[in-house]
Amino acid sequence: MKKLRIGIDARMFSDAFTGIGRYNFELTKRFFALREDIEWVLFLNEPEFSKFQFPPNVQKVCVNAAHYSFAEQTKFLSLLKKEHCDLVWFTHFNRPILYFRPCVVTIHDTTLSFYPGKKMGQWWRKLAYKIVITMAVRIAKKVITVSHNTRDDVMRLFGISSQKITPVWNGLSPDFHQCTSKEHEEVRQKFNLPEQFLLYTGVWREHKNVVRLLKAFDIVRKSHPDVQLVITGRRDPHYPEVLGTVHELGLDQAVRFVGLVDFSDLQKLYSAATQYVFPSLYEGFGLPPLEAMAAGTPVIASNASAIPEVCGKAAEYFDPENVEEMAQKIILVLENDVRRNELIQNGFERIKEFSWDKAAKETLKILEEAVNLKKR
Q1: CB-count burial class (<10 Å; 0-12, 13-18, 19+) for 276
Q2: 150 shares a domain with 28
Q3: CA 258 to chain centre
Q4: Do 113 and 218 have their domain in common?
Q5: Does 342 lie in the same domain as 269?
Q6: Same domain flag for 11 and 144
Q7: Both 206 and 131 in a single domain?
């Protein structure tokens, strides 16, 4: 009897600790162990194609087609057809639009539908995005979303029935944990940080709401002048308003841009921070607050999109468009040790809900259901 053959678009495959690459990494390695009777076909780009080795039931195919490229729509399409998979799981919406064989697609968010950003300024980019994501969800046998909020957005934006969509929460890596006081001191010395600092990790795009965070921090500084704000990640020249706001408010010495940091330093920053602030206007899921909770740090978060669904009772919420309210909630947790400790304990309980093992089993079940739909 011919073995079931399932392909996976793993061109974003990565063992880094964030993003769709990690989603690929955590789920696929569990699939391969759970269903050794399936022939798995993994479509990879270099250097991951050469870097990673897999079990005997996994075939690697080198694609080398960049995301959102012409090669994705031509070369990748040709390779998909050549492999004759019974089902292909596209782990992101950017699939070849002319691939019509049975497939499942994961939608991580619909950010570009609400906040296209400066890189999507041209009309043709917006049109291409709309065509690709619309076809992806309509042609797919099943659609996976990483939150109920994203499921609702997909239904509303693309007219997809709820029966076709299944939300499956992301997991949280056990590598995130509390650090020791010694490690806190090490990271403060390395980056020349004070005893108290707020932490933000993420990009500077419009929906991340960094400018309002800076304005709220300016209010916080008036009553807590010794607190600093630490921002990790690469500086983005497309969003000069971030640095412009820092200079305009005179926060040059109070806001610390520490750049891209390795995982060890990121873990220590999470754990040493007085608070983790997550001001986003929109998130499809939002892993950073969970990572902060695992590190024993209280989370102050936006009440928008999927964030309350993910954080539950383990965050102090604010309206992300209300700078005054954001500042008030930060100050509340700075000054109220009872609330701070409550958030920390709630965080430890909340992270227990997010497991890659659970996500893998639920996702694999959806793939199996999609194969059965094909057989009917």
Answers
A1: buried
A2: yes
A3: 21
A4: no
A5: yes
A6: yes
A7: no
Domain assignment of residue 211, given as a range? 181-353
Tell whether 11 and 122 lie within a shared domain: yes
Q: Look-up: residue for tokens 């929460």? A: 169
Same domain, 206 and 342: yes
Domain containing residue 234: CATH number: 3.40.50.2000
Map residue 239 onto helix, strand or coil.
coil
The count of domains in the chain is: 2
- Largest distance between two CA atoms of the chain: 72
- Amino acid at residue number 157: L
Question: Which residue matches tokens 């921002």?
Answer: 231
Helix (H, G, I), strand (E, B) or coil at 5: strand
What φ, ψ does residue 69 adopt, rounded to 5°?
-115, 170
Contacts of 139 (CB under 8 A, 6+ apart): 100, 103
247 located within any domain: yes
**Local structure of residue 105 (DSSP, 8 states):** E
Token pair belonging to 172: 């949280």
Q: Which residues neighbour 114 within 8 Å (Cβ) at sequence distance 6 or greater?
A: 207, 282
374 vs 34, 69, 103, 267, 339, CA distance in Å? 22, 29, 9, 44, 52
Same domain, 322 and 371: no
Q: Residue 32, Cα to own-chain centre: how many angstroms?
A: 23
pLDDT in tens, the chain (376 residues): 678 999 999 999 998 767 899 999 999 999 999 999 999 999 999 999 999 999 999 999 999 999 889 999 999 999 999 999 999 999 999 999 999 999 999 999 999 999 988 767 788 888 889 999 999 999 999 999 999 999 999 999 999 999 999 999 999 988 899 999 999 999 999 999 999 999 999 899 999 999 999 999 999 999 999 999 999 999 999 899 999 999 999 999 999 999 999 999 999 999 999 999 999 999 999 999 999 999 999 999 999 999 999 999 999 999 999 999 999 999 999 999 999 999 999 999 999 999 999 999 999 999 999 998 755 4
What the block records as the tokens of 72 is 């994705």
DSSP annotation of 56: T
Question: Would residue 176 count as lying in a domain?
Answer: no
DSSP string spanning 143-201? Answer: EEESSHHHHHHHHHHH---GGGEEE------TT--PPPHHHHHHHHHHHT--S-EEEEE
